[in-house]
Amino acid sequence: MEVLETVSGERNNLxxxxxxxxxxxxxxxxLHERIVEMFKAGKKKKVIARLLGVGIKSVRKxxxxxxxxxxxxxxxxxxxxxxxxxxIGHRVPEVEYNGRVLFRERKEKGYRGKYDTVxxxxxxxxxxxxxxxxxVRFETLPGQQAQVDWGSSQVWFGEERVRIRFFVMTLGYxxxxxxxxxxxxxxxxxxxxxxxxFHFFGGVTEEVLYDNPKTMVIKREGATVVLNGxxxxxxxxxxxSPRFCRPYRPQTKGKVESGVKYVKKNFLVGxxxxxxxxxxxxxxxxxxxEADTRLHGTTGCRPMDRFSEERLTPCPLVKPYLQGLxxxxxxxxxxxxNWKGNRYSVPWSWGPVAVRVSQDDRTLILxxxxxxxxxxxxxxxxxxxxxxxxxxxxxxxxxVPTSSCSEDLPPQxxxxxxxxxxxxxDLALYDLLEQEVLR
Length: 439
What we know:
Number of helices: 13
Mean pLDDT: 77
CATH class of the domain at 145-314: Alpha Beta
Helix content: 25-40%
Largest sheet: 6 strands, mixed
Distance between the termini: 93 Å
Number of strands: 17
Radius of gyration: 35 Å
Low-confidence stretches: 1-24, 397-407, 420-425
Shape: elongated
CATH superfamily of the domain at 145-314: Ribonuclease H-like superfamily/Ribonuclease H
Order of helices and strands: HHHHHHEEEHEEEEHEHEHHEEEEEEEEHH
């Protein structure tokens, strides 16, 4: 006799107690009729089940149900990822197989499934990776420490690829972080980034841990660290103690190192922007919506939840560092500093920023935020004079760092880039509008 298959595809094996492991079977018409005939002939239901090799529940279902109807396979629902598979195929290499990024972007487009579905789909597609090096993390108390590091990455500004630096400050206890992009890592950028981070967090930790960047550390001999005077004064101004890793041991600040990797792999990958301002606006949105609210892999908590336990020193009344200095002047757009009625040039690369000014009997000293200084012979006599150093002139062309891979194309499937593109109109439309207004 033909062995029947269950709906799930498993065979009906007769168990010692006369029942079957799977009771839901596909009942053929001939079997249905045979069960009815045997029952009418006086056979008991258990006997019928044993003789025909079906489950007792199947016999009861036939005898207690309607006439036989053909089996129809249930319709298979389309997988939740189905409508997105073609797009995912294009997007996967752009985001370097990052499931979190794909899940976030598809969720914005209406995907209703879970992250695990995306993760399992990507698992066989990912290239194999080598063994990871083990690192021990040292935990700190709330409000005790923040860690700072710079990251570097090439990003797309429209159709142009440029290298940017991004500053990351991570609070040691909560793992909440602040990120901002800059064109360079000079001391001026560092000071601006610190002050933005302190205001973002609403306070300052007792200490901040750094590597040994040249913008801060002039010289180091063993445990003795000689700091840049401007940076040392800056830390004193904000009331925290700077600490530095042992040379060649950046793992000491592993929390922020992980943050730098997280920014690269979860935010920057597969994106393009209009300019630096657009990048930082998107970065701030991502920081609050994604980085603050994710479950952290080490703490198992959302950084924003643990942040409520941080004990930071409030900083609402602390003035920006350069504004707090008594002799501060703003560089004009022409590249000059006005001092006691006269003008003194500074290098074009300084830009229109605030600088510190000091003088003695013969010399005027202009100090930039990144520690560079310019010295001019002091002008005396009538006001309205100008002291110009020809080397301070702006060169005709600035070297803009670009990728050596000029043949590369920007990401073509970044969903947020589509939203951010500015609508382009034919100029003739503006002529028509002007005519309408004049009527």
